[in-house]
Amino acid sequence: MANEKYSTVHYHNYLELDALLSLQKERSAALGKAAHDETLFIIMHQVYELWFKQILHELDSVCGMFRTETVNADNMQTVLLRLQRVSVIIDLMIEQIKTMETMTPLDFLEFRDFLFPASGFQSMQFRMIESTLGLREEDRMTYHGKSYKIVFNEEQTARLTAIEEGGSLFELVEGWLERTPFLRFEGFDFLTAYKKAVDEMVTKEQAAIRASEYIPPKMKEMRLRMVGDSNSYFKHVLSREEHERMIAEGECRLSYNATIAALLINLYREKPILSIPFNLLTELMNIDELLTTWRYRHAQMVMRMIGNKIGTGGSSGHDYLAKTAEKHKIFKDLHNISSLLIPRSSLPVLPEGLGRELGFYYGSGA
To answer: Which pathway (predicted)?
Structure first.
């Protein structure tokens, strides 16, 4: 008997093309009013769902590595590459909107009435992606004042709840950052050195503004307010109490220790051992930005297609989608690190021993 493991397979059968290509069932045709562009509409959304499946496949693998605390120099590159793949997929999803926009509003109206009450709001996989990344229910736009889960059945709701309770990528990355071993080192305290550098930088900038002969007095006052001092936008990393207050009031989410670690990684990104962690944090921000862009482009497409009409799922259509683009951001704390950066020339000089450590291997258990 031939070894089935090495048996040949035909392209057609391997991809299950008979099944795949039979899944485009136009409701307009079934109801005797065939609309040419409904096929495009169905295929576009089916393709999105296939990409959602791949994104979840990548995110689940990344979360799995973080959960077992195996994210070290051996496989952090794998984590980074899989997150980059997610970014590329979302970028492709954004580009695909152009294909949908070859359909005119009149073409869409030929079959829109057959879609009620179906809506992209009911995409289970997209909600799983959001929850896996770390979008919390309390941070979501509500659906007619009710939970986003109201459109899902009991089994689907249980799956979404399990994802929320199982530890999102946000929470796992937060824990990973908190394990960064270089915040305190013999003879060097990062926060103390950072505060001194910030004070020196601010003092220098203030002096330069005051000494300028080309800036009018009122403009000087405005620029001095913009520069601030170490008690302005630096305050929450120089004071744990202030950071905890901001978390309690919903102004930020990332823990204090994780924020300080992210700051250190950003400031000393050129050190060999911090290069991949920096790129990893950057990729999380890229994913956030790309999802925001995708939501915004989706909202613009909806405005183009139906104007201010109510969506097929009963939402406010364009307005709802535009608001989610602004509100459903997950890694905004990482973006806000930029306000805490100081010039390379102002960076505290690392002790020789710490400099050497940042060039060598360490794991999550270090």
So the answer is: Amino-acid degradation; L-tryptophan degradation via kynurenine pathway; L-kynurenine from L-tryptophan: step 1/2
Q: What is the pTM of this model?
A: 0.88
Residue at token pair 């004042």:
145
Instruction: Please state, as a whole number, how many other Cβ atoms lie within 10 Å of the Cβ of residue 277.
Output: 23
The Cα 10–Cα 12 span in angstroms is: 5
Known binding residues for heme are: 298
Residue 86 contacts residue 288 (beta carbons within 8 Å):
no
Listed by start position, the domains of the chain span 35-357
Binding site residue list for substrate: 112, 312
Closest CA to 364 of 237, 218, 178, 125: 178
For residue 206, the surrounding DSSP H or E stretch is helix 190-211
DSSP tag of 102: T
3: confidence class by pLDDT, cuts 50, 70, 90: low
Q: Which CATH architecture has domain 35-357?
A: Up-down Bundle (1.20)
The interaxial angle of helices 169-178 and 272-306, nearest 10 deg, is 160
Q: What share of the chain is helix, strand, coil (3-state, %, to 5)?
A: 65, 0, 35
Answer whether residue 364 shows pLDDT above 50: no
3-class secondary-structure state, position 143: strand
What is the C-alpha separation between 141 and 160, in angstroms, rounded?
16
Residue with tokens 């905004």: 332
